[in-house]
Structures are given as structure tokens and as C-alpha cells.
Design a protein that fits this description.
mainly alpha, ABC transporter transmembrane region fold, 2 domains, 10 helices, 90% helix
Amino acid sequence: MRSLVRILRFVRPYRWQAIGALALLLGMVGADLLIPRLTQRIIDQGIAEGNMTVIGTTALAMVGAALLSTLFAIANTILAVRVGQGFAHDVRSSLVRQVQTFSFRDLDRLQTGQLIVRTTSDVAMVEMVVRMSLRILTRAPVWVVGSMVLLFLTSRQLAWLLVAFVPVIVALLSVFLTRARAMFLGVQKQLDRLNTVLQENLAGVRVVKAFVRERHEGQRFDRENEALMQRSIDVMTFFAVLAPTMTLLVNLGVVGAIWL
């Protein structure tokens, strides 16, 4: 986590675009949260009282909120992508310059496959975290907080029901994220080994052919490739459990709301 915080200094040249993306995200969440309140107004003041004027004006307001949320979302995505790609460009350039300063001892210790993964796959993963932090990773908590505020204003009894589920959800996410971190690290290390084998085969292809070692090297690559495939399947299988579990908790909350 500390390494991630240190590397975020590369976002500094794009801080105003990042701030703009976050501001647009707040506007998008506000527009999304406005629609349920307008729906409540249609039901309570329009349909219940037979007031067509309230229904018409509120429906138009809902359409306007939806359009505004869409525009905010498009602008937020554009700025988030610009920040993410600029960040990735600067990190890759810094990595290459740093590698050029390494001593021969460092270059002997660090395998070429590892350096390739650091400048490609690892940078892409961190770029995705930066980009998603300006979108869904920030939108979800803000949306939850806003929803809880509106829920307290609407029904305190239902709001306390939601609060009761928060510790369960937080504990569940903590367990998943802790386990997922170790699993993703294993995938990245396996990718290091795969790229190292590939680089050695390409760099020494003449030697491999001269000693008729094609079959051996092919089997060696297949072992590392299959290991990477299995680790990736394990990670995706692990995360496949998360969505149904969260859905189950949401459905339990709905059942509790209906029961109350």
C-alpha cells in the first residue's frame, strides 16, 4: 500500500484533471440520487393525490437528471482515461530511465522477463487502479453514503436495517481483498517466470536449435504457461463467489425491509 501511495506522485502533473473528474463524479452521484426522491414525489404528491401537473413536471425533472448524469459520466470517463494514460506514460518512462542507471550486478540479478512485466503488465494494473479510483472505486462509497443519508431522511427504521448490514459487508470485503492480494501477487510472479522463459528462448534460439532442444524448451514453456493459466483461473473463480455473496446480502436486506 505504501508503494502505491509513493507511485501516486506521478498523478501530480494531472491533478487538475483528476480533481475535475472527481467533481463530475460527485455531480453524477447527486443526479442519480435525485431520481429516487423524484420518484417518491410522483407517488406521494402526484399519483396518491391525482395531481397530473406534479406527475408531468416531476417526470421532466427525472429525464433532466438522467441526461445530466449521462453527461457527467461521459466527461468523467474522458478525464479519468486522460489521467490514467498520462500516469502510465510517465511511470513507464521513469522505469526505463531507472533501468538504464542499473549496474551490471543489478542487471544480472534482475531477469529480463521481470523487467518486461514491470514496464507493461504491472504498469497497466496500477494505471487501472488510478483510473478506477476516479470512477467506480470512488463513486460506490459516495453513492452508499448518499443513499444512507436519503434513507435516514425517508425512513429511520429501514436505515438502521441497512446500518446493521454494513459491518458484515465490510468484513466480507476485507477477507476477499486480503486473499485476493496474495493471489494476484502469485499471478504476477508466474507471469514473470513465463516471460523469462520466453525471453531466454527467443534470445538463445540459435543455441536451442544447435543442440536440438526445441522439444525440451517447448515443454518448459508449456509448464509455465499452464501454471499461469491455473493461477488466473483460481483468481477468477475466487472473485466469482464475491458477486453472488453480495447479491445474497442485498436480497436479505430487501427481505428484512419487506418484513418490517
